[in-house]
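SAMPLE LOG
Freezer: B-3
Tube label: C17
Construct: single chain, 482 aa
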Amino acid sequence: LVASALPLRVASFALQGPESGKVQLLIHADVGTDYSASKVVSVGYVITDRDGRLVDNRAADMRLLPVMTGVPSALQYTAGASLPPGEYTLKLAAVEGDRVGTVEHVIHAALPSAGGLTLSELMVGGPIDVGELLTPTIGYQVTFGTVHGYVEAYGPKQDDVTMEYEVAASADAPALVNVDVPPRQAGDARMIFSRTIPIHQIPPGKYILRAILSSAGRSVATLTRAFEIAAPKVLLTSADGLGDTSTDAELYLPVDDKTMTPIFAADAAVDDETIAPFRTRVSATIKPAFDQGVSMLAGGEYTKAEAAFKKAIEPEGDATAPLAFLAASFAAGGHDREAASAWQTALVDGSDFSQIYHWLGEALLRNHDFGEARAIYEEAVGKWPADPRFTKPLAMLYGTFGRGREAVRTLERYLDEKRDDREACYYAVQWYYTVHAGGAVVHNRAEDLKRAKEYADEYARARGPQLALVKQWVDYLENEKR
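STRUCTURE (predicted):
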């Protein structure tokens, strides 16, 4: 008779143990739910073979711990057994206070073989620590934003063996996240494939971890294990300002590293189209020096270009153009702090040049001077509201500074002009998901879902590589609780 007053979830994992002819079993049970502190629990189990004969049993009172003290989770119970290969039945019972739970679990004590190697079963859990973990983490529910996969392989060392882990919504669904897993040699005949995978961007729900073993570039085995990404127990973000006000609670968003670390385009700086507006501010007296500087900049002779542009600066004249291109020479040579300073000076008389704002903003981003960069981009957007050179980085900066809803609205303005930016569409959908997962909305639920679907469709048309993950975010928005 199965008792369910105390919920139990059991899993078993087969490994190669020290006893020849036997399989080492790791038995793990999640006992109860929502325990924030340790509890004394009476736990016992029996293992019987297919003929009903008892092959192992254990019973004890023990203090079980949650995954992390203070964070509600099931209590964690782990035991081991060494059995001959075969089919077995585990019956486990636990008593905590006046609550009793029992569960039955079928054990398949066998190790799969592939590619000349024998494999353990795939072990999955949600580690508290990240980094290189050389022992398995066991647990069905993942709470801390990282899932840990662990497989052992036994046999002679093979240099052409590779492993890849994938997180998917189901066994045959496309991968949401995939990572290569380098082998770690643990003796002459044992390899460990252990990898932690960040899953902050994946919505709560049930998922599969796939471990794909390949030999000589050909897949030879796939192991799978189910796990669940837990919903946050407590919202960490205030839900204030859910209406149409512009007040943002602190809501930080993932940002595009490429946008936040732009490369200075020296070739574009000397295009005729770029230079033309500046030439109207170059007087006849400084034109030879200015033209010489442009020629040197185009030829990659940045030090000589700097000297020429400095020569073109007249203390009593309009120095906007030579200062702007002196700064461009600094930036081309990798001196972004000097470049930012020169562009700041060029803005004194050149605040009507959008190009200077563009160059200066990017230099400040490269210098990680995000506060100054935000101020420059806000000023630029005030002058040129629809210019995509300013709206996209400003959106990323708002996301960095915790102004999540304002970040999404600014990215929407960018996408109104640049709907073909595949990566921006990706971030837009992710940001709607992140805002809603944090307990807020951008406009309202219906409007946010409508826009997210539109951007997801654009991403699909552009054959975005993370389409499965984008669809997962849209599914979350469609099915979130009202």
